[in-house]
Write a structure and sequence with these properties.
By secondary structure, the protein is of the alpha/beta class. The chain has one domain: 3-Layer(aba) Sandwich (UDP-N-acetylmuramoyl-L-alanine:D-glutamate ligase). A 10-stranded mixed β-sheet has the order 1-10-9-8-7-6-5-2-3-4, with helices on both faces.
């Protein structure tokens, strides 16, 4: 299978135009589920990234111990407190009764503390049953979820360690072998895989795209959370998982390049949020 390197001209085709007469909600409603006692910032980064990608409404679900801090971080977020400090079946059942019925996409896992994998399965299966497109990251990437995902419009965004936990295989350092490994597991599980690294590899097992980065400053914590938010934001508008994941990887890396040029190796994930509108502006279209 020939892998294609992502270029701006191609990315522009993947980001839908916005209707000139669109109303609130027409450009996406996203749910973000993440956070824990330690990692309060991850879902905030994802949520703001989704908004800056062009999403109209973002519902940010965090443990109740994080709700006040999340509300204080940005007035733009609609905060839904989880009933428990970790993801439990009871908390999921209550959340499912609170979320809007017109969700377009969701991203789950950033900094999330999961008490019971059955709770994670319940959340994933319930959202998929409602035809919600999913982006899964971090603690949501466990092997037990794989039977729920085939042909269900899901993107998984692991780094190498999470890839091993999810698929049971460590990706090689060889780019050629990494591509083969990603393609194999994407095809076997009928899911879109975005393997993060110096070169991102995005594949659904039928087509494969490469996003060469080599941006050493992006090893800082939180840049993957930003990526998850961008994926969810694009999934809410372009409901094709491979196209959305590919465009998200490209946009995230371009933001990283921009802030590295400005600050050198001394960046934070929040810096990427600040420049997302600049990166995305060339791709804006109104119809």
């Amino acid at each position: 299978m020939n892998a294609i390197i992502l270029k701006p001209s191609f990315i522009k085709k993947l980001i839908p135009a916005r209707k000139a007469n669109s109303r609130k909600g027409d450009n996406g409603t996203v749910l973000v589920v993440g956070g824990s006692y330690i990692y309060h910032g991850a879902p905030i980064l994802s949520s703001i990234a989704a908004l800056k990608t062009g999403t109209d409404l973002v519902y940010t679900c965090v443990p109740k111990i994080n709700a006040q801090a999340t509300r204080a971080a940005s007035p733009n977020l609609i905060v839904l407190p989880l009933a428990d400090s970790k993801l439990t079946r009871g908390a999921v059942n209550k959340l499912l009764g609170q979320i809007p019925h017109n969700l377009d996409s969701a991203t789950i896992g950033m900094g999330l503390a999961i008490q019971d994998i059955s709770a994670l399965k319940l959340l994933i299966s319930s959202l998929l049953d409602q035809d919600v497109r999913l982006s899964l990251d971090a603690s949501a990437l466990v092997n037990g979820i794989l039977p729920l995902l085939p042909n269900k419009n899901v993107v998984v965004t692991p780094h190498s360690g999470e890839f091993k936990r999810l698929f049971g295989e460590i990706p090689s350092d060889s780019i050629k072998e990494r591509i083969k490994t990603v393609e194999k597991h994407a095809k076997e599980n009928s899911v879109t895989v975005l393997l993060k690294g110096p070169t991102d590899i995005i594949s659904d097992g039928k087509k494969t795209f490469l996003n060469p980065k080599k941006i050493p400053s992006m090893t800082v914590g939180g840049t993957g959370d930003v990526l998850s938010g961008i994926v969810a934001g694009l999934l809410a508008r372009n409901r094709n998982p491979l196209e959305s994941a590919s465009a998200a990887a490209f946009v995230n890396s371009q933001a990283g390049k921009l802030v590295q040029r400005k600050f050198g190796l001394h960046i934070t994930a929040s810096d990427l949020l600040d420049v997302l509108p600049i990166v995305l502006k060339p791709f804006d279209r109104i119809r």
